[in-house]
Amino acid sequence: MQYSNSQRRYDSFRNEWDLNEEFDPTAHYDSDEDDDDDFDFQRGSNAHDGINEPVASSQGSNLDPAQELGRRLIAHEAEDVQSEKMSTATLEEVLYWFHGLQLPAAQSSETELMPVEAQKATRCKSSLACRNADRDPYNPRSEWVLSVLMNGLLSRGALLHGFPPDWSDFDPSCTNYLARVYNKRFSVSRVQITNQREDMYRISDGEETDYELIVGRASVVLLCLRQMKHLSLDEVAEYLCSWGIKLSTCLRVRHEDRGPRTSLRAVERIPYQVKGFQLGKDNYMSYVGRRKQLFRSNEVLRAALKHGGVPWRLAMEVSEDFVTSGPSSRVTEVGGFYKTEEGDELWDEMLTEDQINIICGVYKVEREESAGKSGKKGDDCGRLTEHVSWFLKDASWRGSGLDVGFWSADAESWYQRRVKKYLDRDFKCENQTEWKKLLKLWREAQKVAEHLETLSRSFLQCHVLHGLEPGSILEYIRTYLTYLLLLVCGDETWHVKMLTLKTTPI
Question: DSSP readout, 321-349?
């Protein structure tokens, strides 16, 4: 590409010079042939590139600007809409690392399962969002063990029960009892966010860093604490990002120390379609092109990689790298922030709602109802509209059976089927209600994820945040009261747990 000096900017995220529309609004792309899509994250990046605005369509074109942009970007790159299947965690990795379930290995002497047991084993994999997960080729867990595990995954109460207690590293009888063996190099503290019901957690490695690593799930904190090797904070961020976990690498700023914002993010326009419109290949190609254009921004791509869920997966289509450092130096100019109860601001690259709409391929569509009907939401022109999209938005993803805290094998399988559907010319966008219905097949997985997250939160609270030492009298009292509660609630295995408790050293 040939630009004048006023049109050039250095993008340290991609280690290249690129077009800068902020310095020169007349800048435009001459060609896409020399674009380099291979780039790496830079540790400690001080990128000064801004959010790219959509390239305006040519004056003589009658096409919708989004369609014009998509056609120009990918007219010669049709093969780029293909998606390669990503490698996800094996079933055994999910059980051990994410949930702390240390199940016995398969034995050659095990007999064939009865139909009911086989059904339970399949149900167990589905409830963990791992029905399509690969298995550990060297140390797989047997189907019989999975069928027994299923008895406890949907159990109620303050502890997992329905299977041997030493299968969980939350239990003192487990060989690798987590309260005894977790990585003490990491320190964890609670972060209270204003107007947010659930607390978040700060993970530190004890070293001086320019940012704070913040996560929202207790199970993610315990995933880090199960790592026995010494990891820097950058390596932890990279590790979590490789799982597709939502995280933040925040810069803490006192409100009175932050200067006024001098630049505003450009608002991305959502394409409008009239009632009864028909989608075609051009629409899908335009969507992919516009999404790629948005991901050419350092901040947007990093924000998507830290967002988790569908935006993370779509960002991985253009980058095989992970977040390995804190936010850019101008995060207070282009990012967003959480406000803590202490009054501080935690700034990070964050996706705006309109950016998520572009990434997920949202259209604003005229509704079937008449424009005069009351109680319906309309646009600025008074038209009744609804959002349909190529991929579901956060509102539909949250609470679904695929929202289990990480990008699972079942989520990847669903994603690949969806992309194949479009490549096979089945062009249909869904509204958010339809998306929720399509994900009901994994309803049980969400219940299991919530139960395991509750147990992780309780363990983190007692043994890490409050520092109850394993074998201490306080831990003994807490565990004793917990088992009494299980007895009152009718737990059939209470006598086994009490026997385990009596043999635990004080």
Answer: ----S---TTHHHH-EEEEBTTSEEEEE-
